[in-house]
Amino acid sequence: xxxxxxxxxxxxxxxxxxxxxxxxxxxxxxPYLFWYVxxxxxxxxxxxxxxxxxxxxxxxKGFEAEFKRSQSSxxxxxxxxxxxxxxxxxxxxxxxxxxxxxxxxTLSVSS
Amino acid sequence: KAGVTQxxxxxxxxxxxxxxxxxxxxxxxxxxSWYQxxxxxxxxxxxxxxSETQRNKGNFPGRFSGRQFSNSxxxxxxxxxxxxxxxxxLCASSPGTEQTQYFGPGTRLLVL
Lengths: 111, 112
Hints:
The structure holds two protein chains of two kinds. Chain A is mainly beta.
């Protein structure tokens, strides 16, 4: 079955510290992978995507993610977190449309 | 370029009623998808329309339906509302199928 697992429901990181959000997927075909962010009461904003090619992809707001086929993972990273990064983060897999989403990871940033 | 717009932003209905939500995609985008977001089930795909044709459908009952117009604007309809239909309904558009989607702000539906 096709699925996305985000093992961490909630993560708290100090401002300025590094961040890694985990994402594991199960998908039969070559996956298209996405990370979206959602602030309270808002829609989803695309952070980055992986379709093919270089397995390390750069996104907006200083985020990057690495696709590891052998581990079926697509973890999101940021070297230095800002207070404005506090939000809910969703990993998704699919053909671009008809996405399958993980349950999300809520990021809190402490000062 | 203007983003995806959804109307209305908030809606309150009672059980048994029906509701229609509207989505205007980014100019030039021909694919529109709908998702339901609830605290319990998370984000779930409802259906996708491309050039006025339903291309994909998620696992939702027939009470959930949609359509797309020639200008790519889309509507979704939920008939005989149930309490469990309370959710944030998100619309996303993309230039075509199998391409990156961009989401609107959503319509928050509360069923009483």
